[in-house]
Specification:
mainly alpha, 63% helix
């Protein structure tokens, strides 16, 4: 994966974390799955998805 793609994936992951912290208790549209989006970014960045979820305490809401 080239550096631009990795930076784009990181920016998206960062945005998802901010979105989670601000909106975790609010409803989201049915076509949006927060954890699927995080998994996609983790895969692009070669990050352990389960460890990432634990480290950032992303355990409830937004699914």
């Amino acid at each position: 994966m080239n550096n631009i793609s990795r930076v784009t994936a990181f920016a998206e992951l960062h945005g998802l974390i901010l979105f989670y912290k601000e909106n975790r208790d609010l409803p989201v549209s049915d076509d949006f799955n927060f954890f699927d989006e995080v998994k996609k970014c983790c895969d692009q960045l070669d990050l352990d998805y389960e460890e990432f979820i634990k480290e950032f305490n992303l355990t409830t809401g937004l699914s």
